[in-house]
Amino acid sequence: MSMSSSIPFASFNQTSELTSVPHDPMLSLASNCIRDYFGPTVQLVADGLVFRGEPLTLQQLVQCLRTKCRQKVYSQERIRLLGPKVASRLQNQSLQLPPIKAALLVLIQHSIVTVTVKKVKGKLQYQYTYDRTRARLLPRYPRYVEYAKRALDDNAVALVEELLVQGRLRTVDAVSKTVERLEQAAAANEEAANEGEDDDENKPDDSKKKEDNTALKQTVLESFKKLAQAGFLEEVPKMKNESENADPDAGETEFEAKEPPKKKQKTGNDAADDNVKLQEEEDPEIVSLLKGSAYKRFLTRHTVWRVNIAMFHESLRSFILGRLVAERYGHKVQSAGSMVTAALKYLAHRRHAEKSTDTEMTFDAASIQRYLPKPVQELLEKKRQAAVANNTSRNMAVVSQVARALQQLASYKSPICVLEVETGAKPEDSRFEICTTRMVQYLQQRITNQMILDHHGEVGARIVTVLSRNGYLESDSLAEVSMVPAKDCREILHRLYRSKYIDLFTLSQSRQHNPSNMIYLWTVNGQRILKNATDNVCTALLNLRLRRQHEVEVGKNWIERAQEAGDMDENDHEADKQNHKKFCLGLERLYGSCLQLDETLMIMEDM
Amino acid sequence: MPPKKRPASASKAGAPPAKKAKSAVAIKIEPSLGSPSAVRAAKKTTGTEKKQDGLKERFIALFSLEEFKSGISNSQLKDKMGADSIAKLVPIINQLTSESRLVMSKTGKNELFYSLVSADVATKFKGLDTAARMVYQVIERAGNMGIWTKDIRLQTHQNIQTLNKIFKTLEARRLIKPVKSVTAKAKKLYMLYNLTPSKELTGGVWYSDLEFDHEFISELRTFAIHCVKRLNQAKGVTLTEIQGKMIQAKVSRIELSLEDVQQLVQTLVYDYLVEEAGENENGEVLYVSARRVTTMCDFKWWEHALSNDFHFRPIQFDDGLELVAHEPHYHTA
Q1: May I ask the CATH class of domain B43-116?
Q2: So what's the ipTM on this one?
C-alpha cells in the first residue's frame, strides 16, 4: 500500500483562509501555534480577529468569517465518494455558529483573546481582541515548567503545568486536577518499579490511600499558596457582569441565545461565594481545606487563576541578565551576576506579588539581600568574619559589601548595568537602579551580530558592526576599514542588503537621475536591523515547525506501526530500522532547533 | 660675359637672413665694402653676445639660491634682475626652453613661473617632439595616482599607434613607467618614473603582488590577540607595545606603521575579540581581551531555514545525519 492512497483527501495544509498574506512572520507563527495546539477551527477564528485588525463583536466576527471564507466548491467526484449527506454536512460545518463560539471560548480560556465590554448607543457590546504575543508563547510552556522545577517544588510544577494546559481554572479545580495528575504519575512510577512482582502484596489499602490523598491535597494547596504569593499565578480579572447594568434593551447576550445556559466564570473574593452550594464536581475536602485560616486570605474558592507569564519572563530575564553581568564583570566584582539577579527578582516580586504601582524601581542593598543565593551570602558572611578577626576598620557587614559592589558596578559602561540614583552617607544608604533596557539592548545587539556571523560570515558581521558605529560609508571606505578587498566587500554588502540587514542611501549630485554620478552610502538602522533579525527568527521558527509537522504527518503511519510493533513483526528489516532511527533523530533535531530559536526569540521580543 | 658677383652684404629680397656666426671671429669684409661703421657693428655684436652670456649665467645662478631652488616667478625675476634686463632675458629664456632646460608654468596669481631642469634631465628630453612632450605633461599632471592609457588618448588626441611609440620612447628614456592598480589589474596606468604609486593603486601594506594577502593579515591578527592576552599579565597593551613586539618577533616582512597596527587591532575590536579598556598614563588606549558573552543564539543553519523552498529540501546536518522525505515502509510479511 502506498502512502499516497491511504489518505485520499489529505493535504498538508497549515493555513486558514484568512492567514495573513503577505505574511508578518510573527502573525504567521502565532497562527501556526494555534493550529498546532487547538486545531484549524480555532486558527480560523483567530485569523478572523487578526484580519480586521480591530476589536470585533461576535456578530462582526461571524459575518467576517462567512463573507471571507467562501464555501468550497466540492467536485462531483468528491460528492460521489463521500455521499451527498456527508459532503453537505462537511460543507456547512465549519461556518456554523456553535463551532465559532466554541473556538472563541477556547481562545478566551487561554487568554489569547481578551474581552472588553463597551456601551454603544445604550447597548452593551462585548468586543474581542486578539493577543498575538500570547498565542506565540504556546510552545514556550515547557520552559516555564522547567523554571518552576528549578525554582520551586514538584507540586508547584504539576500545578503550573495543569494551569498552562487548561488555560485557567478555579481554585478547587486546579487543586483537584493537580492532585489527580500527581497520583497518576506516582502510580505509573510505582507500576514501572514493581513490574513483574506480585501486585497484591504491595497494593496499599484504601485508608492508606485516602490518607495519602489528603496529605497530597494539603501539600498542593501549600504550593499553590506559595506560587500565588510569589506572583507566579495571578487572578483572572473579573469580567463585567451583565446584570450590573441591566437594561431591557441591552445588546447581544453572547453565549445564551438559543443555547443551553452555560456557567459564567466568576472571580473575586466575595464572601457570599462561600455560601454557594457545593457543585457536583467540586471536591468537598479541598473546599473545607480552603476554608481553613491558612488559605482563606490567599486562595478563595471561586477565584479563577492563570499562570502569570510576565512573572516567568521576568524571572528568566533576571537569570539571563545576571549571567551577562557575571560574564562581563565577574572578574572585577565578585558575585556581580548574583547581585543583579537578586535585584531583578526583588523588583519582579514587587511588581507582581506586591502589585506595586510605583513606577520608580529603585532599591537599596538591604532589600535584595534575601534574594541572594545561599553560597553568595555565606561567602559574604565569611568575609565579614575575617574582617572582624583581622580588626579592620572598614565596615564589612554583608549589606555594606553588597552596596560597595553595586557602586563599583555602576562605574562600568559596556554595557551599563547599574545606576546609583541616590548616594547616601554610607554605601548601604545609597539607592540603585538596574538598567534592564540597556542590558537587553546589548544582548540583542550581540545576538544580531551572532546571527549575521552564522549567516553571512565573519566579514559580514564585521561590516555591520563598522556601519553601526561609523554611520554612513561608501563601499571603498568600508572595505578599507574592514580590511577586506573592495570587490569582496561589494559582494557581501549586496548580500546583506538583500537580507535587509543594511540600507542604501543615495546622494544625487545633479537634478537629473544619473546612476553613474550618484554617491552610494551604506548604513545600518538600529531599529530596522533588530526588527529584521526578529522577523528572521520567526520565519526560521515557523519553517522548522512546519517541516516538523509535515514530517510527522507524512511519517505518521510509520511511527504508529513502530510503536505498536513487537520485537519480531515490524521493522525487522535492517534498512527499515535504520531509516526509522534516522527519521526519529531528524525529528529530534528539528524540535531541538525550534527550542533554540524560541530561546532567541524570547530575548529579542519578550524581554 | 659672366655676371658680376654681387657684394656679400647684399641680400635678395625675401631670402631668409643668413645665420650669424657664434664665434668671435671677425667676418671677412672686402676692403671695397669695409667701413668703420661696419667694423664698429661687428665689434658691438661680439660684445652683446658676451653680455648675453653673462646675463644667462646670472639667470642660471639665480636658481642655485636657496629661495629659488624650486623656481622663480616673473615678478621675483624682475626684482632680482632689474626691469631693464627682463627684455634681454627673453632670448635666453627661449633658448633654454628649446634646450628643455627651463620649464614654464603659471602660478595661482596667473603669473609665469620658471623652473630650471638639470642638464642630465634635460638630455632625456632632448629630441622629443611636441606630441611626446604633451604626453609627458599629461602624465606629470596625474601625479602619483597615474593615468589610464585611454585618458591620455582623450586628452592628447593622439591615435593609439602613435601613443604606443611615444610610451616606448619615454619608457626607454626612463621618464615614465607603467604601473597596475589593485582595482583593475588588466589595465595599464602610467606615471613619472621617479614617483611612488599611491596607496589607492597598490592597496597598501595589505597587498602583495596586487593580491590581498589574507594569510598575512590572519597571522598578524593572531599575533595581536596573542600579545593582548599575554603581555602585561593581560591587563592591557597599547598599540605601540604591539608594534614593538611585531618588529621584535619579525612577524611582518615589511615595516608596519602605527596606523597600520591600529587598523589591524580595530578589526579585532569590531569582531568582539578585543576591547578598549581605558587609557594609560601617557593617554594611549589600552586593549584587553574581550570576555565571552553567551548570546543565546545557538541556531546555525539560517541559510536553509530562511529559504523559501525549505520544506522541500533535504536537510544535511554536520554529523552526516540527513532528513529526507519519508521512505516507503518495507513490508516483511
Answers
A1: mainly alpha
A2: 0.79
